[in-house]
Design a protein that fits this description.
The protein is of the alpha/beta class. Helix content is about 35%, strand content about 20%. The chain has a nine-stranded mixed sheet with strand order 7-8-6-9-10-11-12-13-14, with helices on both faces. A six-stranded mixed sheet has the order 15-16-20-17-18-19, sandwiched between helices.
Length: about 450
């Protein structure tokens, strides 16, 4: 870390994106003596006090529509949401700029083992479970990446005996050339096709999490997911798999409502506080990742105590005998389907949002079997309705579909329609960008609406 900081002194550096996650990086670079230009599509007015605070630190601002033009800095830090092959970035590289990211540099300077998780669904819960199990074993853990805080500014505090547990998105992985000591792939299903050129590029990005591993490193893959299982065959190092459908020799499997690791029982399903078989898979993935470091009793302790991550089938409250859940993270059909399977009754579901160009056919059929009232809002409402009405089971399933202009109207309608014993869940199936900055903001807005409902 000290070597990296010394290398930044006096260098012309650009940081693309002035979001919350990049501000610690900007501060770190300024302290190291770099000449920092912060670039963002937002205007000065939209940034407000942040613009003044950055300029007081000596940062030069490049804002507005042309924020990526004429980049000549020696080093350019890319935010995950900015494609690395944009013409302006290609031109900068041709002029000699080095394109990198906060996470790429962290992988270069981190002094302790890195355990990283990616996947289309389940990666945040799996990442958190790994961290919780290691902490319960008495280890010092640094949790970050796509899950929250940037880790590079804290790398100087890390020790060789610590563990860094990192969630990585496909956008972060697109340009990664270093791999973690332990890589976990929860599953790979169509997602983010509004940003990636096609499914092949999305899969290729996910593979970057392990292709740079050494022979002693470990890859953990979901054997029940075809794309993930295929990746196991490309692993340069060791491989462990997990499955709910078959026994595995090296890894975890689920049989008789029990999770087994290498044939030994570790956790019973009844001991897992968070609902759903998809969370059984998350536990199997986490166990495979840390089985060399923790004991079965530690995993069992976490299973009994861990209440889940916000926005992931999160219980909000009970009103007039109706339970309300927040599953705002369910921004893909696969994740939303997993949520439907987490309950033993038909649900009232609030869905809809931004269109990521993902087909909804599979969700339409599952909704016919697991949903009694589907309340749609947002840009994708017509496509979701069509997917349900075109499903083979639609004619005889009895599902009702309603469309509301806003999330607040959808929550109010759910409250009016629900009867004692019903379950209402926000499960968008889509991203939130048509009305909210992200799924967290949407989930918290939903919870506030639910908390305002009258008894």
């Amino acid at each position: 870390m000290e070597e990296f900081l010394r290398s930044m002194k006096g260098k012309e550096v650009a940081v693309l994106g002035i979001g919350v996650s990049n501000r610690p990086l900007i501060g770190l670079l300024c302290k190291a003596g770099a000449c920092v230009t912060a670039c963002d599509k937002k205007t000065r007015e939209q940034l407000g006090d942040t613009a003044c605070q950055l300029e007081e630190m000596g940062v030069r601002l490049q804002l507005g529509e042309g924020y990526l033009e004429n980049l000549t800095q020696e080093v350019i830090f890319r935010s995950p949401g900015i494609r690395p092959d944009l013409p302006s970035l290609e031109q900068a590289k041709a002029r000699g700029s080095r394109l990198t990211s906060e996470m790429e540099v962290f992988f270069e300077v981190c002094p302790c083992p890195i355990l990283a998780v990616t996947g289309s669904d389940g990666k945040t819960t799996t990442t958190t479970l790994i961290a919780e199990m290691l902490k319960a074993e008495g280890k010092r853990v640094w949790l970050g990446g796509n899950i929250g805080q940037p880790l590079l500014p804290m790398a100087g505090e890390m020790k060789a005996e610590d563990f860094a547990v990192v969630e990585l998105s496909s956008f972060q992985l697109m340009t990664m050339n270093k791999a973690p000591h332990v890589a976990v792939i929860t599953n790979v299903t169509p997602n983010h096709l509004d940003v990636h050129k096609d499914m092949a590029e999305y899969v290729s990005a996910k593979e970057h999490i392990f292709l740079g591993q050494g022979k002693d490193d470990l890859l953990v893959c979901n054997l029940d997911n075809d794309l993930s299982a295929a990746m196991a065959k490309k692993a340069p190092g060791r491989v462990r798999t997990f499955s709910r459908q078959e026994k595995v020799e090296s890894g975890a499997f689920f049989e008789n409502d029990t999770i087994y690791y290498n044939g030994t029982p570790w956790i019973k399903k009844e001991d897992i506080r968070i609902p759903g078989l998809h969370n059984v898979e998350n536990y199997m993935a986490a166990i495979c990742a840390v089985a060399d470091t923790i004991c079965p009793e530690t995993a069992l302790q976490v299973a009994r105590e861990f209440a889940g991550v916000e926005h992931r089938i999160e219980f909000v409250r009970q009103v007039r005998g109706v339970k309300y859940y927040n599953d705002a993270i369910a921004t893909s059909p696969a994740r939303a389907i997993a949520g439907l399977h987490s309950f033993d009754q038909k649900l009232i579901v609030i869905a809809g949002g931004y269109d990521k160009k993902i087909p909804f056919d599979a969700y339409g059929e599952e909704a016919c079997h697991h949903v009694k009232l589907l309340i749609l809002n947002g840009a994708t409402a017509p496509k979701l309705r069509q997917a349900v009405e075109n499903a083979p089971s639609y004619k005889d399933c009895g599902i009702r579909i309603a469309e509301k202009a806003t999330l607040e109207e959808a929550v109010q309608f759910a409250w009016e329609q629900a009867q004692e014993g019903d379950i209402v869940t926000l499960s968008p199936v889509c991203a939130s960008f048509d009305a909210y900055p992200n799924f967290m903001t949407k989930g918290r807005a939903y919870k506030e609406m639910v908390l305002r409902l009258c008894e």
